[in-house]
Amino acid sequence: MKCMVCEMSSNEELIIMRNREVVVFHNPQPFNNGHLIIALLEHRSINEIDKSQFTELMGITRKFVGILQRVYNPHGFNIGISLSPHVYIQVVPRWNGDVSFMTLFYNVKVVPETVKDSVSRIKSAVREYGI
User: Fold this and answer.
1) I want to staple 89 with a disulfide (CB 3.0 to 4.6 A). Which of 24, 38, 41, 106 is the partner?
2) Which domains does the chain have, with CATH numbers?
3) CA-based nearest residue to 126, from 76, 73, 60
4) What pLDDT is attached to residue 104?
5) pLDDT for 76-99, tens place per residue?
6) pTM score, two decimals?
7) Angle at 74 between CA 70 and CA 76, to 5 degrees
8) How far apart are CA 84 and CA 58, in angstroms?
9) CA 5, 82, 32, 127: dihedral to nearest 10 degrees?
């Protein structure tokens, strides 16, 4: 089975930033606008990463929560860590009442902004506010 993180992190249309350790990209099937995935570039499980990699992953996550707060002004965030086979963090901006009847009855999520527009807005904010 192919690694979803490795596959998506090579899609330049989704990538917001990349450094020596971490890649940040927009989820191609977002739960909400600005749904990001922050992953180590190395394909490793939680037990295989060292303290500096974990610190870098969490530091970038913290910075992007700040960026998303400025871009979207959500009421809060859901942050989840997937531990294997590739460590990554999902950051999902949340708004009061963001679960609609479409989700409840039809298992469909209506996201008002395209992934392309979200990536563009977040990249602009990264340039403006820095990482």
Assistant:
1) 38
2) 4-119 (3.30.428.10)
3) 60
4) 47
5) 999 999 987 889 999 999 988 776
6) 0.84
7) 115
8) 16
9) -60
pLDDT in tens, 38-65: 999 988 888 899 999 999 999 999 999 9
- d(C-alpha 57, C-alpha 7), whole Å: 19
Largest CA distance in the chain: 44
Q: 40: which residues sit within 8 A by CB, 6+ positions away?
A: 21, 22, 49, 53, 56, 57, 86, 87, 88
Query: To 5 degrees, how large is the angle CA 126–CA 129–CA 131?
Result: 60
Predicted pLDDT at 86: 86
CB 91 within 8 A of CB 36: yes
The sign of the CA dihedral 35, 51, 46, 3 is: positive
d(CA 39, CA 108): 26
